[in-house]
Each structure stands twice: as structure tokens, then as C-alpha cells.
Amino acid sequence: SPWVWALGLSLGIVVAGVLRLPRWQVLAVGSALLLVSGIGYGFTLKQANADQLEQQAQAKIQDRGRLGAARPTGVLPVLLTSIARRDSPAVCETLLDGQAVQQFAAAQGATDCRAAVELLAARVSDAGAYSSASAPLTRRGDESLVDACRMTWSSGTSAGPQLGQLTIARTTGQTYFVTQFVPCSQGATAPSR
Questions:
Q1: 19-51: buried (b, 16+ CB within 10 Å) or exposed (e) per residue?
Q2: At residue 16, does pLDDT exceed 70?
Q3: For tag attachment on the chain, is the N or C end more exposed, with fewer CB atoms within 10 Å?
Q4: pLDDT at residue 188 in the model
Q5: Which residues pair with 170 in a beta bridge?
Q6: Which positions ≥6 away from 91 have C-beta within 8 Å?
Q7: Whether the Cβ atoms of residue 17 and residue 30 lie closer than 8 Å to each other
Q8: pLDDT at 172 exceeding the cut of 80
Q9: How confident is the model at residue 59 (pLDDT cuts 50, 70, 90)?
Q10: Long-range contacts of 48-52, Cβ-Cβ distance < 8 Å, separation of 24 or more
């Protein structure tokens, strides 16, 4: 960066000014240049950090568009598998979007989403069978409502806890995510548009 060179040159002039005392003019010029180049370097560094954070945010959005589920019907099995495996990043950072993260944690009485995944995973009796649950799905426009309060398993025996009512929609890219989570005790709600 040119500001690094300017900063180094300014520092050299300040040192030369100190060596030439009592001639204070060189020291004054060096100090002024050091101040200007320091401010310029600081702004450049701040802008570089902001650019890096922006690139990371864009990469996360693009990566998120590749995650989730390809169809609304695929969200529940992926979510249940992730819970059974205690894969809280998959649940909290990939499958649940926006307000659904907080709603999911609150529904379990947990402090955060990761703790909610742990609480649910502890109640799963058969991790392999838990992901094979089926639940009623209703489509409404661009959203789907999965009533995971009425999950059933082909074995006829529950493999774990009922989950809640999931509103599923596209938020980024071509994949689907849970955009709203309602606990089973609150009753059915239609997806918002």
C-alpha cells in the first residue's frame, strides 16, 4: 500500500528532524507527514477490513443458497437427521432462517439454538429411524406448512419427540429453509405471505 511507504518515509523524516534539533522545521514537517500518512493508512486498513467482511458475508449467502433442501418435502428429513446427529450448525446455521432460530430455541426452553438441538437429541430413542418420520404437508403459494406435531414412523413406534409446525420457503437461491417455527402446543397457524 502506498500509505505504508508514506508512513515509513514520514517516520524517517521525524527521526532526521530529531537529529537536526534545534532546527525544528524538519521535525515539524515530518510530524505533519506522519500524522497525515497515519490517518491515510488507518482509513485504508479500515476499508480493507470492511471489504473482507463484505466478501465473507457474500460467500456465506452463496454457500447458504447451496444448502437447505432442494424441495419443501426434503426439509423435515434433513432437519430430523441433523437433530439426531446433534449437528447444531446444520440446524441453526443452515436449515433455520431468521426468526425461526429464536422460535426453535424458545420452543424448547433453551438459551440458544445449539442448546435446543442438544435437548431434542437427548430425547431421540432411535437416531436412524427418527429422520424417516412423515408429517402432513400443506402448500400455500410459495410456502409450505409441515405439521411436525403429527409425525409418524413406518415402524408405528415413535423414534423421538414431535417437533413443531414448520413454515418452509425459499429465502436464498433455489433451496428451501424453515422460515417460521411454532411449537406444538400453540396450535396450527397458516404460513404468512
A1: eeeeeeebbeebeebbeebeebbeeeeeeeeee
A2: yes
A3: C
A4: 44
A5: 176
A6: 79, 82, 83, 104, 113, 117
A7: yes
A8: no
A9: low
A10: none
